[in-house]
Write a structure and sequence with these properties.
The protein has about 200 residues and is mainly α. The chain has six helices and no strands.
Length: about 200
């Protein structure tokens, strides 16, 4: 049965190549989506001075950083390369936490942001859905490829989806009341993601 075993190896290799192709496509899709969002959020934040809009922009930047780290890990052939990629994911997580906390501090300190999301509201709603779908794909292929950076990036995509949803909800009611609901949700998600990523980094 050597031929059967050899065929099995070929099939396994082909499946891994297919999974790797899908994983890379998911990361590039994330980068393109978030880059488009940043191009919309920067002028909107400058015009409205809404900390919620600025927070979304910071969170989008963190997502691009995490996707870049995951792409690096997908092409890394050594342990050190994978560890550096996880380190970049942790840096992206810190940026995402800033995207949650800094706008909230601005609201508390100066009462800014009552203009709401304006034209970025539609993007925030769509981003919550898109990033959740991307997170599901990254979680699936992260497990199949045993790639901890891809899995961690999937967790960060969940953070982005929940923060975007929380910001949309915050913009529909009392800003001071609802922003902190979104901020608390984002902080819990960031903590969950950070603990999981730090555990993966120790094991790598």
């Amino acid at each position: 049965m050597p031929g059967g075993r050899r065929d099995g190896v070929v099939l396994t290799f082909a499946a891994r190549r297919r999974d790797l192709t899908w994983a890379v496509a998911l990361e590039y899709a994330t980068v393109l989506w978030l880059a488009a969002g940043i191009s919309l959020l920067i002028p909107a934040a400058s015009a409205s001075r809404a900390p919620m809009t600025a927070g979304l922009g910071i969170d989008a930047f963190a997502g691009i950083l995490a996707s870049s780290a995951a792409l690096r890990a997908l092409h890394a052939a050594d342990r050190d390369g994978r560890r550096r990629a996880l380190g970049l994911v942790l840096a992206a997580l810190a940026a995402a936490a800033g995207g949650v906390l800094l706008p909230g501090a601005a609201v508390l300190d100066a009462g800014l942001g009552h203009a709401g999301l304006g034209p970025t509201r539609g993007w925030a709603i769509a981003s919550a859905v898109v990033m959740l779908l991307l997170a599901l794909g990254k979680a699936r292929f992260g497990r199949r490829l045993a790639n901890t950076a891809l899995t961690a990036d999937g967790r960060l995509a969940v953070v982005h989806a929940l923060v975007a949803l929380g910001v949309v909800l915050a913009s529909t009611g009392s800003l001071r009341a609802w922003w902190w609901v979104a901020a608390a949700l984002g902080c819990v998600c960031c903590l969950w993601t950070g603990l999981g990523t730090a555990r993966d980094l120790r094991r790598t």
